[in-house]
Design goal:
- The strands form 2 sheets. A 6-stranded antiparallel sheet has the order 5-4-3-8-7-6. Strands 1-2 form a two-stranded antiparallel ribbon.
- It has 2 domains: about 60 residues, Arc Repressor Mutant, subunit A (Orthogonal Bundle), CATH 1.10.10.10; about 140 residues, 2-Layer Sandwich (Beta-Lactamase), CATH 3.30.450.
- A hairpin with a 5-residue loop joins strand 1 and strand 2.
- The chain is an alpha+beta fold.
- The chain is elongated, with a radius of gyration of 20 Å.
- It is built from 7 helices and 8 strands.
Length: about 210
């Protein structure tokens, strides 16, 4: 901790990170032990975070992330989109297919950035805001593989006809980006994905991840 930083704010952010990493919430005692501070400090931190709806406590007294975090999260998408666009443009132009960045939104996959190639006669119309189940389509399958630690070489998912008849997709997960689950991929009108597309998608996902770190 330096003279330019706030110890209280630092502790509050650490509380949010600890709560975000658990599905069942944490008690005041558990937070006190993890933060290395006394319970009184934790009570004050939680009370302040509750005022801003960033934390809620259930009937059993366990603290969980509050709905206010979702409101903040909605503002993240434009920032993520902006960071990803250069890599998506390069991918779309190189492959000649619609490139997209997809993030997890609840139990669904949500396309937050889409770039279409400029030189092709036709391509798949894949729109920002498009949603689909995580277990359908290359974008969602790549995310689930990363979540289950199943990402191995070559590190990408391939699908055909799962979201749109006649369309094939390839996607690679974002790896090493704290707080973001997502994938970068392409969708094309083809019976199968050309061999060079998978590795190229992996490279693009790495570029986006680097931009978001």
């Amino acid at each position: 901790m330096t003279a330019e930083t706030s110890q209280t704010l630092d502790r509050g952010l650490r509380v949010l990170k600890l709560l975000a990493d658990t599905d069942h919430g944490l008690t005041v005692t558990e937070l006190s032990n993890k933060l290395g501070v006394n319970r009184t400090v934790v009570y004050r931190l939680l009370a302040t975070l509750e005022q801003h709806a960033l934390v809620r406590r259930d009937l059993g007294g366990r603290a969980r992330v509050g709905l206010g975090v979702l409101r903040l999260g909605r503002q993240v998408h434009p920032l993520v989109r902006e960071a990803a666009l250069p890599a998506l443009r390069s991918l779309a132009e190189d492959i000649g297919a619609t490139a997209h960045l997809t993030l997890v939104d609840g139990s669904e996959a949500l396309a937050v950035a889409v770039v279409e190639p400029t030189w092709t006669d036709y391509h798949v119309a894949y729109r920002t805001g498009f949603r689909h189940p995580l277990d359908r389509g290359a974008a969602g399958r790549a995310i689930l593989a990363a979540r289950q630690n199943l990402v191995t070489d070559p590190g990408y998912a391939l699908t055909h006809g799962e979201l749109e008849a006649g369309a094939s997709g390839a996607a690679a997960p974002l790896v090493g980006v704290t707080g973001i689950e997502g994938s970068v991929g392409v969708v094309m009108l083809a019976d199968s994905v050309p061999e060079r597309v998978g590795p190229r998608v992996v490279d693009a996902a790495r570029e986006v991840a680097d931009a978001l770190r």
